[in-house]
Amino acid sequence: MLLFLDSVPYIIIFIFGIVIGSFLNVCIYRLPLHESIIMAPSHCMTCGRKLRWYDMVPVFSWIVLGGKCRNCKSKISVQYPIIEALNGIFYVLVCAVNGLTWVSLLYCLMVSALLTLSLIDWRTYEIPFGINVFLFFIGIAATVSDRGNLISHLIGAVCVSAFLEILFMLSGGRAIGGGDIKLMAACGLILGWKQIILAFLLGCIIGSVVHTIRIKVSGAGHMLAMGPYLSAGIFLAALWGNTWIGWYLSLLGL
Description:
Elements: H1 2-30, H2 60-64, H3 79-98, H4 102-124, H5 129-145, H6 150-171, H7 178-191, H8 193-218, H9 227-251
Helix pairs in contact: 1-3, 1-4, 3-4, 4-5, 4-9, 5-7, 6-7, 6-8, 7-8, 7-9, 8-9
Protein backbone atom coordinates (compact mmCIF):
# COMPACT_ATOMS: atom_id res chain seq x y z
CA MET A 1 0.00 0.00 0.00
CA LEU A 2 2.84 2.40 0.92
CA LEU A 3 4.56 1.71 -2.41
CA PHE A 4 1.33 2.48 -4.27
CA LEU A 5 0.83 5.74 -2.38
CA ASP A 6 4.40 6.77 -3.22
CA SER A 7 3.66 6.08 -6.89
CA VAL A 8 0.44 8.12 -7.04
CA PRO A 9 2.14 11.51 -7.64
CA TYR A 10 4.13 10.06 -10.54
CA ILE A 11 1.03 8.43 -12.03
CA ILE A 12 -0.66 11.84 -11.94
CA ILE A 13 2.44 13.45 -13.48
CA PHE A 14 2.47 10.85 -16.26
CA ILE A 15 -1.21 11.45 -17.04
CA PHE A 16 -0.62 15.20 -17.08
CA GLY A 17 2.39 14.61 -19.35
CA ILE A 18 0.51 12.59 -21.95
CA VAL A 19 -2.30 15.17 -22.01
CA ILE A 20 0.26 17.89 -22.74
CA GLY A 21 1.82 15.50 -25.25
CA SER A 22 -1.46 15.46 -27.17
CA PHE A 23 -1.23 19.25 -27.51
CA LEU A 24 2.39 18.91 -28.65
CA ASN A 25 1.22 16.79 -31.59
CA VAL A 26 -1.06 19.65 -32.63
CA CYS A 27 1.90 22.05 -32.48
CA ILE A 28 4.16 19.70 -34.43
CA TYR A 29 1.72 19.48 -37.33
CA ARG A 30 0.33 23.02 -37.36
CA LEU A 31 3.26 25.31 -36.56
CA PRO A 32 5.18 24.55 -39.80
CA LEU A 33 1.94 25.25 -41.71
CA HIS A 34 1.39 28.50 -39.79
CA GLU A 35 -2.02 27.28 -38.66
CA SER A 36 -3.66 28.20 -35.37
CA ILE A 37 -2.86 25.77 -32.56
CA ILE A 38 -5.81 26.99 -30.48
CA MET A 39 -8.75 28.07 -32.63
CA ALA A 40 -9.03 25.27 -35.20
CA PRO A 41 -10.70 22.09 -33.82
CA SER A 42 -8.86 18.78 -33.97
CA HIS A 43 -9.74 16.81 -37.08
CA CYS A 44 -8.69 13.83 -39.18
CA MET A 45 -5.83 14.80 -41.49
CA THR A 46 -7.39 12.73 -44.31
CA CYS A 47 -11.16 13.18 -44.26
CA GLY A 48 -11.31 16.36 -42.20
CA ARG A 49 -13.88 14.96 -39.74
CA LYS A 50 -13.96 16.78 -36.41
CA LEU A 51 -12.75 14.48 -33.66
CA ARG A 52 -14.88 13.73 -30.61
CA TRP A 53 -13.39 13.85 -27.12
CA TYR A 54 -13.31 10.06 -26.87
CA ASP A 55 -11.18 9.93 -30.03
CA MET A 56 -8.56 12.15 -28.42
CA VAL A 57 -7.77 10.39 -25.15
CA PRO A 58 -3.95 10.38 -25.19
CA VAL A 59 -2.34 7.05 -26.15
CA PHE A 60 -5.42 4.96 -25.39
CA SER A 61 -7.69 6.25 -28.18
CA TRP A 62 -5.03 5.38 -30.78
CA ILE A 63 -4.79 1.85 -29.36
CA VAL A 64 -8.57 1.36 -29.17
CA LEU A 65 -9.06 2.61 -32.75
CA GLY A 66 -6.27 0.37 -34.00
CA GLY A 67 -4.38 3.38 -35.31
CA LYS A 68 -7.16 4.29 -37.76
CA CYS A 69 -9.68 7.10 -38.15
CA ARG A 70 -13.11 6.09 -36.84
CA ASN A 71 -14.76 7.66 -39.90
CA CYS A 72 -12.61 7.01 -43.00
CA LYS A 73 -10.41 4.21 -41.61
CA SER A 74 -7.24 5.90 -42.85
CA LYS A 75 -4.12 5.23 -40.81
CA ILE A 76 -3.29 7.60 -37.97
CA SER A 77 0.44 8.20 -37.56
CA VAL A 78 2.10 6.28 -34.75
CA GLN A 79 3.73 9.60 -33.91
CA TYR A 80 0.66 10.55 -31.87
CA PRO A 81 0.92 7.92 -29.11
CA ILE A 82 4.74 7.97 -29.18
CA ILE A 83 4.97 11.73 -28.54
CA GLU A 84 2.26 11.54 -25.87
CA ALA A 85 3.92 8.64 -24.08
CA LEU A 86 7.42 10.15 -24.37
CA ASN A 87 6.26 13.44 -22.90
CA GLY A 88 4.66 11.61 -19.97
CA ILE A 89 7.78 9.50 -19.40
CA PHE A 90 10.05 12.55 -19.58
CA TYR A 91 7.88 14.39 -17.02
CA VAL A 92 8.14 11.45 -14.62
CA LEU A 93 11.90 11.23 -15.18
CA VAL A 94 12.41 14.94 -14.53
CA CYS A 95 10.44 14.78 -11.29
CA ALA A 96 12.13 11.55 -10.19
CA VAL A 97 15.57 13.13 -10.61
CA ASN A 98 14.83 16.64 -9.29
CA GLY A 99 11.90 15.96 -6.97
CA LEU A 100 8.52 17.68 -6.94
CA THR A 101 9.94 21.20 -7.11
CA TRP A 102 9.45 24.47 -8.96
CA VAL A 103 12.56 23.65 -11.01
CA SER A 104 10.99 20.37 -12.11
CA LEU A 105 7.93 22.26 -13.39
CA LEU A 106 10.15 24.56 -15.46
CA TYR A 107 12.18 21.63 -16.76
CA CYS A 108 9.00 19.77 -17.76
CA LEU A 109 7.86 22.78 -19.78
CA MET A 110 11.33 22.97 -21.32
CA VAL A 111 11.27 19.29 -22.23
CA SER A 112 7.91 19.66 -24.00
CA ALA A 113 9.26 22.59 -26.02
CA LEU A 114 12.41 20.64 -26.91
CA LEU A 115 10.40 17.60 -27.98
CA THR A 116 8.21 19.74 -30.22
CA LEU A 117 11.01 21.69 -31.87
CA SER A 118 13.06 18.52 -32.38
CA LEU A 119 10.43 16.91 -34.60
CA ILE A 120 9.72 20.12 -36.47
CA ASP A 121 13.42 20.79 -37.06
CA TRP A 122 13.99 17.17 -38.11
CA ARG A 123 11.34 17.54 -40.82
CA THR A 124 11.73 21.15 -41.92
CA TYR A 125 15.27 22.18 -40.85
CA GLU A 126 13.68 25.11 -39.08
CA ILE A 127 12.99 25.85 -35.41
CA PRO A 128 9.83 27.95 -34.94
CA PHE A 129 10.63 31.33 -33.43
CA GLY A 130 7.67 31.07 -31.06
CA ILE A 131 9.11 27.99 -29.35
CA ASN A 132 12.39 29.79 -28.68
CA VAL A 133 10.43 32.73 -27.25
CA PHE A 134 8.58 30.29 -24.97
CA LEU A 135 11.92 28.85 -23.81
CA PHE A 136 13.23 32.36 -23.21
CA PHE A 137 10.34 33.10 -20.83
CA ILE A 138 11.07 29.83 -19.03
CA GLY A 139 14.65 31.08 -18.75
CA ILE A 140 13.46 34.31 -17.14
CA ALA A 141 11.41 32.31 -14.62
CA ALA A 142 14.38 30.01 -13.89
CA THR A 143 16.68 33.00 -13.39
CA VAL A 144 14.25 34.76 -11.06
CA SER A 145 13.76 31.60 -8.99
CA ASP A 146 17.54 31.11 -8.75
CA ARG A 147 18.57 34.72 -8.08
CA GLY A 148 21.63 33.63 -6.11
CA ASN A 149 23.14 32.36 -9.37
CA LEU A 150 22.02 35.28 -11.54
CA ILE A 151 25.42 35.76 -13.17
CA SER A 152 25.63 32.08 -14.11
CA HIS A 153 22.28 32.27 -15.92
CA LEU A 154 23.19 35.50 -17.73
CA ILE A 155 26.55 34.12 -18.85
CA GLY A 156 24.78 30.93 -19.90
CA ALA A 157 22.56 32.93 -22.25
CA VAL A 158 25.56 34.24 -24.22
CA CYS A 159 28.54 31.90 -23.80
CA VAL A 160 27.45 29.28 -26.37
CA SER A 161 25.08 31.40 -28.43
CA ALA A 162 27.76 34.08 -28.99
CA PHE A 163 30.17 31.44 -30.28
CA LEU A 164 27.49 30.08 -32.59
CA GLU A 165 26.64 33.60 -33.80
CA ILE A 166 30.28 34.13 -34.79
CA LEU A 167 30.25 30.75 -36.55
CA PHE A 168 27.03 31.75 -38.31
CA MET A 169 28.53 34.99 -39.60
CA LEU A 170 31.83 33.43 -40.70
CA SER A 171 30.07 30.63 -42.59
CA GLY A 172 27.31 32.78 -44.05
CA GLY A 173 24.73 30.65 -42.23
CA ARG A 174 25.96 27.34 -43.65
CA ALA A 175 27.49 25.93 -40.45
CA ILE A 176 24.64 26.63 -38.04
CA GLY A 177 21.09 27.94 -38.17
CA GLY A 178 19.71 31.04 -36.52
CA GLY A 179 17.13 28.96 -34.65
CA ASP A 180 19.92 26.90 -33.05
CA ILE A 181 21.58 30.10 -31.81
CA LYS A 182 18.36 31.31 -30.21
CA LEU A 183 17.75 27.85 -28.75
CA MET A 184 21.10 27.82 -26.97
CA ALA A 185 20.61 31.38 -25.73
CA ALA A 186 17.21 30.60 -24.22
CA CYS A 187 18.28 27.28 -22.71
CA GLY A 188 21.54 28.82 -21.49
CA LEU A 189 19.42 31.27 -19.52
CA ILE A 190 17.52 28.30 -18.06
CA LEU A 191 20.51 26.13 -17.16
CA GLY A 192 23.43 28.47 -16.52
CA TRP A 193 26.83 28.53 -18.19
CA LYS A 194 28.32 25.26 -16.93
CA GLN A 195 25.38 23.11 -17.95
CA ILE A 196 24.79 24.80 -21.32
CA ILE A 197 28.42 24.29 -22.32
CA LEU A 198 28.09 20.62 -21.37
CA ALA A 199 24.78 20.48 -23.26
CA PHE A 200 26.44 21.88 -26.38
CA LEU A 201 29.31 19.39 -26.20
CA LEU A 202 26.91 16.49 -25.66
CA GLY A 203 24.72 17.67 -28.54
CA CYS A 204 27.69 17.85 -30.90
CA ILE A 205 28.89 14.37 -29.89
CA ILE A 206 25.42 12.81 -30.20
CA GLY A 207 24.84 14.56 -33.52
CA SER A 208 28.18 13.44 -34.96
CA VAL A 209 27.70 9.82 -33.95
CA VAL A 210 24.04 9.49 -34.95
CA HIS A 211 24.36 11.33 -38.26
CA THR A 212 27.47 9.39 -39.24
CA ILE A 213 25.52 6.17 -38.64
CA ARG A 214 22.60 7.52 -40.67
CA ILE A 215 24.92 8.37 -43.57
CA LYS A 216 26.40 4.86 -43.52
CA VAL A 217 23.11 2.98 -43.05
CA SER A 218 20.46 4.99 -44.88
CA GLY A 219 22.52 7.21 -47.16
CA ALA A 220 21.34 10.40 -45.44
CA GLY A 221 22.78 13.63 -46.79
CA HIS A 222 25.47 15.59 -45.01
CA MET A 223 23.04 18.35 -44.08
CA LEU A 224 21.63 17.74 -40.62
CA ALA A 225 19.14 19.38 -38.30
CA MET A 226 21.02 20.25 -35.11
CA GLY A 227 17.90 20.99 -33.07
CA PRO A 228 17.17 17.38 -32.03
CA TYR A 229 20.79 16.73 -31.03
CA LEU A 230 21.17 19.99 -29.12
CA SER A 231 17.85 19.23 -27.41
CA ALA A 232 19.15 15.81 -26.34
CA GLY A 233 22.26 17.45 -24.90
CA ILE A 234 20.17 20.05 -23.08
CA PHE A 235 17.91 17.36 -21.61
CA LEU A 236 20.85 15.28 -20.35
CA ALA A 237 22.67 18.32 -18.96
CA ALA A 238 19.53 19.55 -17.18
CA LEU A 239 19.01 16.24 -15.38
CA TRP A 240 22.53 15.02 -14.70
CA GLY A 241 24.85 17.87 -15.72
CA ASN A 242 25.79 19.00 -12.22
CA THR A 243 26.59 15.42 -11.20
CA TRP A 244 28.76 14.80 -14.26
CA ILE A 245 30.54 18.14 -13.94
CA GLY A 246 31.22 17.50 -10.25
CA TRP A 247 32.58 14.03 -11.06
CA TYR A 248 34.83 15.42 -13.81
CA LEU A 249 36.21 18.17 -11.55
CA SER A 250 36.89 15.62 -8.81
CA LEU A 251 39.04 13.65 -11.26
CA LEU A 252 41.07 16.80 -11.83
CA GLY A 253 41.37 17.33 -8.08
CA LEU A 254 39.39 20.58 -8.23
